[in-house]
Amino acid sequence: MGKLDLSYAITVFIRALFRDFAVFSGRVGRREFWHVFAVAAVIAVLAWMPGLVSRPLGAAALFVCAGLLFVIASAGVRRMHDLSLSGVWFFAPGINIYLATRRGRVGPNRFGPDPQGHRIDAFA
Questions:
Q1: Are 45 and 64 in contact (CB under 8 A)?
Q2: Which helix (H) or strand (E) holds 25?
Q3: 27, 29, 53, 94: most buried, per Cβ within 10 A?
Q4: How many CA atoms lie within 13 A of 83 on its CB side?
Q5: 27: closest CA among 120, 101, 91, 107?
Q6: CA distances from 68 to 39, 61, 82 (A)
């Protein structure tokens, strides 16, 4: 997989937050999914910290984290699509982490084109 590229991670997260927030169709690769997950986890931890000392800030943190869960769910469903699986598999505890680490299907599948840009040519 490789190391975490912070600028790439933030760029991918911002795109996931504003453009792909409620997109549950299509595919997303491992790298993009884990970068979105990592940035969302850091933001969630930072959002909860002030909530430890103040209830109003805790309530605000709850809304922030709920939005982050939605972003992660959207990316997770598309990650399962990259494996040619139903997005429902993302909501299966335990197995979802294992599946999210698996390499996606090469070439297009029923959920869309390969996010890595690979093509399978019949006459290659």
A1: no
A2: none
A3: 27
A4: 21
A5: 107
A6: 10, 10, 21
Q: Of the candidates 82, 119, 116, 75, which has an alpha carbon nearest to the alpha carbon of residue 102?
A: 82
Q: Please give the full DSSP string across 40-86, using - where no structure is assigned.
A: HHHHHHHHHHHHTT-HHHHHHHHHHHHHHHHHHHHHHHHHHHHTT--
The amino acid sitting at 79 is R
β-strand partners of 109: 112
Give the residue carrying structure tokens 């979802």: 96
Q: How far is CA 114 from the centre of its chain?
A: 16
Report pTM: 0.81
Distance CA 89, CA 97 (A): 10
Please report where in the chains the tokens 């911002």 appear, as a residue.
14
Tens digits of residue pLDDT in 58-111: 888 888 899 999 999 999 999 999 999 999 999 999 999 999 999 999 999 999
Give tens-digit pLDDT for 105-115: 999 999 999 98
Q: Residues 68, 44: contact at Cβ < 8 Å? A: yes
